[in-house]
Each structure stands twice: as C-alpha cells, then as structure tokens.
Amino acid sequence: MLDKVLDAKLQTWMQRVRSELDLPVRLTLWNGTHYDLGSFERPRVSLRINDVGAIGAFLDPSLDTLGEAYVREQIDIDGNVIDIVDVAYKLASLSALSAGSARFAGKLMRKFAHTKSEDKAAIQYHYDVSNDFYRLWLDSRMVYSCGYFEYGLETLDEAQEKKIDLILSKIRLRRGHTLLDIGCGWGALVIRAAQRFRTHCVGITLSERQYDLALERVREAQVADRVEIRLQDYRDVTGKFDRITSVGMFEHVGRDNLEAYFARIQSLLTDNGVAMNHGITSTDADSDDSPLGGGSFIDKYVFPAGELPHLSLAVKAMQSGGLEPLDVENLRRHYVRTLEHWTGRFEAHAQRIREMVGETKYRIWRVYLAGCAHAFAVDNVSIFQIVCQKSRQPASVIPWSRRYMCR
C-alpha cells in the first residue's frame, strides 16, 4: 500500500497526464493495481512499476530518470519501442515545462579532459561490446553511421553503400590518391575506396575489436596491399594525405578540442587535398546538452565523454584550424531512417541480444537506438557532412557546381 501523501501525489500526477497528454498507456503498480493514463480503449504501452522507489521517476520525470529506472529493472515496459519512446518524451516534456524553460533546454554544458587514455577507454567502452552484437543489427558491411537514402526506399545495405560512395564523390577521390580515414570502424570505407579507385588507404581506430575485424575484412577483400588498418589515436598520425575522411568521430573529440582536431587534419592534408567531416551536432545554438535529460543518459550508459557541438561551432573551429568549408549538407532525415532500420533489426533479435550481452546492456541499447531515432526526427540533434580544404587555396581549384557529387 502507498502512504497517503505519496498516493495523493500519484493521483494528482495521473490526473494531469490524462487531461494534458491523454497517453495510450496502462500503468500497473507492483501490487497489481492498474490505471489508464488516457481514454484509449486498448493502450499501446504497458508500464509496470516494480517497486515503490521508482515512483519518483514518474512524479518528476526526465529521459535520464526514466531510462535509468528501465535499465535498473525498476520498471518494465511492453509495446512497440517507437510508442514507448514517444511516451517517455511526452512525460519528460510535461515535467520540464512545469520546471521552466531552462530545464527544457537542457543547459548542462559538460566538459571532459579527452586525454588519449581517456578517449581510448571511452571508445572501447562503446565499440568493444562485441562484434557479433553489432553484426546483428547493422548492415552487412557493419557501417555504424548515418546511411544515405537517395530515394527513401533503399534497403539498409544499399543506403550504406550509397553513403560511402557519396563521401568518395564529395572528396573527389581518384586513382593513386592516398586516403586517411579517422575512426575507420570495421573498415568499410577504406575497403570500398581501395576497390573502386585503387587508392592507398590508412584507417585508424581506438577499438581493439574493430581493429581485429577490420584487418580480417581487408584480407578477405584482397586489398591488403592497398589498405593499412592501425590501432592509433588521430593525434599520433604523421605524413601527408591527398584525402581525409572522418565519419562519426568528432563527437568524441570534445568541444574545446575541435580547433586542434581540425588543425591536425589540416597538417595532414596535402596542399591541394580535400577532407570531409561527417558528424552529429547539437541543435542548441550554444552547443548545450540535448533537452529533457537525454544527453545525461547517453553520457552515463552509452557514450562516455561524448560532446556535440552546434554546426556553427564546428564550422568556426574548422576555419580557426586552417580549413575552408566548401560544402555543408544536412542528413538528419537520413539518420532517422537509418535508426529506424537499426531499431527494427535490434527488436527482431531481442532474445539473441539478451543472451549475448545481458539484460542491462540490452535495455540500454534498446532505449538508446529508439530514443536517437526520435531525437533526430524532432530536431533535438542533427548531422552534417562538411567538405573542406586548406584555407587560402586558389579559387580555381573549387568545382563550379555540386554536380560531381551525384555521379
């Protein structure tokens, strides 16, 4: 039984949810008592509170507190994961509006040191879960970044191949070029570049499991004479490269280190070289945290020390680092579709994933993937590809139009 004060608070909260949100949710307490949070005949989401301590997560909810209660198995949720995330966002938004606009905006601006050892530990925490884990829900190339849906009807495999080819077109890759891929993942981009253009490629990663599988895939693709995979920090790379790509990497650099990061890319480029940065950005003009506590949950459970800059900060840091932006493209819509594919595959393999990584990690990744799909869909976060070259190059080296990107 609930004490009178807590029961009164719960009843008041449920009444407000019913009147302002009318959610398709059935809420069940640990004692079997259930309440409907809307007027729907058949609720689409079933939510069970397993112990009295979890009630606080609902009386003043954020995406962080709700996600943590789910991960710790204080609550159980059944239903379509898209509906579940939609409900979580609505509950958190209602609470945030009550608390004031500052909380709604999520003004946290966390800072991290981003030393080499700390960055390596953060990368390995996220990417070294298991290659088999990622293989279950990524495409066959295991490309862990936003795909490119030219028509919107492509399969995930087709979209990821088109994304890689779009990048190679944007940087105007040619036979005989040298290419550095910073954060090469499991090697898909450098393998494709070597196969299509016979370029000499170097791919670097801090994930040992990515490194091992990328080496294996390079050998299987028979491009080992043209592709080198290194377990290496970008700050330790030396030499010159005609082309540099960075896909899903600068989110790990840190806002305060962006200028140095782009300056490093600038120093590694040949004078007539071209680089491209593909990365997730904050949609808060001050580069503050994503709203409603979503960023806090991701920092805690998914991407330790991740920091998202606003597009304006990324471009400013790029120019301060000695690079001239040539082309900027928003791929937010494409990431929504990519995440929908990943979420669908993840849900389809739910039992296998539970057996592989355990209930806690299963729950973390389940809400993370679906939550990210929602965040991109409503413009809480975005993603941009920025093509650049060294500053103060002759204007004659810049193509007249963007037509070359669409070959």
Automatic annotation (TrEMBL):
<comment type="similarity">
    <text>Belongs to the CFA/CMAS family.</text>
</comment>
<feature type="active site">
    <location>
        <position position="372"/>
    </location>
</feature>
<dbReference type="InterPro" id="IPR003333">
    <property type="entry name" value="CMAS"/>
</dbReference>
<dbReference type="InterPro" id="IPR050723">
    <property type="entry name" value="CFA/CMAS"/>
</dbReference>
<keyword id="KW-0808">Transferase</keyword>
<dbReference type="Pfam" id="PF02353">
    <property type="entry name" value="CMAS"/>
</dbReference>
<dbReference type="Pfam" id="PF25371">
    <property type="entry name" value="DUF7884"/>
</dbReference>
<keyword id="KW-0489">Methyltransferase</keyword>
<dbReference type="InterPro" id="IPR057206">
    <property type="entry name" value="DUF7884"/>
</dbReference>
<dbReference type="GO" id="GO:0008168">
    <property type="term" value="F:methyltransferase activity"/>
</dbReference>
<feature type="domain" description="DUF7884">
    <location>
        <begin position="13"/>
        <end position="92"/>
    </location>
</feature>
<protein>
    <submittedName>
        <fullName>Fatty acid methyltransferase</fullName>
        <ecNumber>2.1.1.-</ecNumber>
    </submittedName>
</protein>
<dbReference type="InterPro" id="IPR029063">
    <property type="entry name" value="SAM-dependent_MTases_sf"/>
</dbReference>
<keyword id="KW-0949">S-adenosyl-L-methionine</keyword>
<keyword id="KW-0443">Lipid metabolism</keyword>
<dbReference type="GO" id="GO:0032259">
    <property type="term" value="P:methylation"/>
</dbReference>
<dbReference type="GO" id="GO:0008610">
    <property type="term" value="P:lipid biosynthetic process"/>
</dbReference>
